């Protein structure tokens, strides 16, 4: 029987593991099929984490987190969790992809979010063949070529700036004429000669052939179509939370969710199910920032320690 099962190995999960093990819990396992670090490892530049003055990429930033957590006894199992369910004795069953399961006194779910699909014609057909959601992963393939970026938030503008170091030109497409990103980032984009703003516009279609994307058709405010002959487009239009493991066999969810699928928690990261905690992007009103996810993980771990102490 585990004291605590942590599902997800991003900033929230790692922070929860650190605080739980250092706080005295003995059997703590973090379930994460891939290498720990989470979605932030695909970021090209992190410069807003307090106390880390050096600008670095996401992988470099997250690498020391795992080492620090494991030092206090956190165990990492590289396997996917398929479902979390609650037992009659108030413990939890963690169902795993290989058909086995683990029992735990408490669970912290930190499965985070994934990039949303934008919904334009050709997006699914050419995903991975010219349509991407990760400039750090795929930017190199477009060295000295022109590409498009779709979005108006921090991620879109930051990745456009990153791509400007690699590509010959960036068309930044946004449905409005103002951006949601930080003013300093917007200013950098506007001053970058390689970035052309295509505002009040939406992507109508991505087209190509067996080799991949050949161009992007953009619908402008006057309903005319502008054809951009680019071999790639990077989309950054928000995130969908990953709540699938909370779905039960009857189709219901283990705990209360908001209308948009986020888990409802209180300030102590407690769900409406005793012993079940949620941290990071999955929770309601999450700011979707590394520092917030890390804080959530710490709060959830401290709440878990109090909960397990109350069982005795």
Using brief descriptors, characterize the structure shown.
alpha/beta, FAD/NAD(P)-binding domain, seven-stranded mixed β-sheet, five-stranded parallel β-sheet, FAD/NAD-binding_dom
Description:
By secondary structure, the chain is of the alpha/beta class. It folds into two domains: 2-115 and 239-311, FAD/NAD(P)-binding domain, CATH 3.50.50; 131-235, FAD/NAD(P)-binding domain (3-Layer(bba) Sandwich), CATH 3.50.50. It is 23% helix and 26% strand. The strands form four sheets. Strands 1, 2, 3, 4, 5, 6 and 17 form a seven-stranded mixed sheet that branches. A five-stranded parallel sheet has the order 8-15-9-10-11. The protein has a three-stranded antiparallel sheet with strand order 12-13-14, with no helix packed on it. The longest helix has 22 residues, at 290-311. The protein starts with a strand and ends with a helix.
